[in-house]
Amino acid sequence: MLPPSTTAMADEIREAPEAIARFFDRDMPVLRETARRLGERNPNVIVTCARGSSDNAAAYFKYLTEILMGVPVASIGPSVASLYHAPLRLQGATIVSVSQSGKSPDIVSLQAACRAAGAFAIAIVNDTSSPLAAGADAVLPLHAGEERSVAATKTFLSSAAILAALVAEWRGDESLIRATRDLPEALKTALTADWSEALPVLTAASSAYVIGRGPALPIAAEAALKLKETAMLHAEAFSGAEVMHGPLQLVERGFPVIAFRPEDAAADAMGEAVLRLRATGAKVFVAEAGTPKPGRLPIAPSGHPLLDPLVMSLSFYGLAEQVARARGQDPDRPSRLKKVTETL
Fold this sequence. Notes:
Elements: H1 8-41, E1 46-49, H2 52-69, E2 73-75, H3 79-82, E3 94-99, H4 105-116, E4 120-125, H5 131-134, E5 138-141, H6 154-171, H7 174-190, H8 199-204, E6 207-212, H9 216-231, E7 234-239, E8 256-260, H10 267-279, E9 283-287, E10 296-297, H11 308-326
Parallel strand pairs: 1-2, 1-3, 3-4, 4-5, 6-7, 6-8, 8-9, 9-10
């Protein structure tokens, strides 16, 4: 549950459901036309172009596309185009670029290189007057409004929700289509979820792990990023499988772990990972469905297991904002970061 706060981050967390609802209210024809063109091209491969939180949204899209469409999705490092000027072979492929500002030169450069190599370019941007939008074949605007906090929250969720809706329309999956339209209401409920049990543990921590599987893994990556940039807490994200291949060695009694466990095909495997982590003495908090009990972080069901990681993400944001303030940090203005980062 997000308590009253004067931070822009808290305000923007609360604004996320309405931002997503605005997209569905205003741009369904654009979404359907983009999905139609994507289906018409029938790409054998999709590449993504993004950094930071936007890259986590792109990774969420990767899992949905590979699970539901069977099309491999790969992230291309922007420097391949912006610094190394490598020739790309992408005839018949699609590039999906995600950027709040649409201005970073490396992101713009990679999209242009992919398009010149034959790829169909889709841009998800908050600023539709940006160079990235101007250089795309199709633009899906976030309608998130100004984001004043350096930490991206509503733009991340808007990007991920729009990408989920794109996959749903491309597949013609009526169940997922309905769930994406209902997502703003599920997110409003997620704002009331009380994750404060984890607050004192994370406030006192020097390091933490965040784990997930499948579409929940990019949400874990986004959560770890938020703890680093807003709370100055060293946090690392791992797959619930990958954490057993080395990182487990660092887990000692009391070590904090946040686990995202939606009721999808990976739920049982994630349950086993949680048990192994708890056996080390780690302090594990699990975002999952079920009756309240110690160590369980309540979630708001989205109506579809592949969307549940998004509602978990919003509840986590509320926790991260509280952790930052409890650690004496300003989540809106991290000392070494700025809102628009332009890299080559």
